Structure formats: C-alpha cells, structure tokens
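User: Some background: our group keeps a shared notebook of sequences we're curious about, and every so often someone picks one and asks for a predicted structure to add to the entry. Today it's my turn. The entry only has the sequence so far, pasted here. Could you supply the structure so I can complete it?
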Amino acid sequence: MAYWLVKSEPSVWSWDQQVAKGAKGEAWTGVRNFTARQNLVNMKKGDKAFFYHSNEGKEIVGIAEIIKEAYSDPTDKTGKFVCVDIKADKPLKTPVTMAAIKADKKLADMALVKYSRLSVQPVTAEEWKLVCKMGGV
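Assistant: Of course. Here's the predicted structure to add to the notebook entry:
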C-alpha cells in the first residue's frame, strides 16, 4: 500500500462533503498539473490518502481510500488528465495543521512543505505514521 495526500479548498470540496458521499465515494477530478497527474496514475486501489484542506484551514482533516484507479477525467476536454475515485475512511481526531507539520523536524522534507502548490502528493510511510500519531489515529 502506498500513501498520498490530496488537497481541496473546503469552500470547493470539503471533508464533510466527501464523508457524505459514503462508500461509493467521489471522482477526484480537476487536477491540471502533470506531476499531480502522474501521482494519480500511480495510485492503486486500497492506497490511503490524507485529505488536506488547503488555503482555508491549512490542515489534514481525514484519511481517504482510493477505490478506483486512474481513468480519463470527464471534466478535461483535452483528454490529457485523469482522476481516481476516493471515499472517506476516517477523520483525524485532531486536525494536523501546516504549522504543526513545519514545526516537526522529521516532517521538514514532506512534499506538503516542499511543494506547497502540488495538489496530489506522495507521503512516505514514516511521514504517514507521524501525521497519524499527531492526529490521534
């Protein structure tokens, strides 16, 4: 299993909206960056992803699961981009803020810190464990 982080502005798509989709999940569409696209392509069914509220909140609020691997993004008229389907798995007991991540020396090299504009990012197993611990799960 691999670990990832997906970003969404809560005013556009929030954790609560993701949770409301239930077991059928929702397509993670609208990614228009080629590095993020490649990360979507590399996702496998069963992989886990942190759900990060960007801009508003700047915090990891939950864990999602990849339930359908990459396929053509129906919102992309060029045919160059893909999406995956994700479902909410569980919320973090305590949201983990960007400030808390930056303050932890072990997380200084996390993609979330280094590549703040990238909407879909890999997360190492060690980073995953540390953030989960910080979040109380």
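Suggested note for the entry: The two ends are 18 Å apart (CA to CA). Strands lie at 3-8, 26-28, 48-53, 59-72, 82-97, 120-123.
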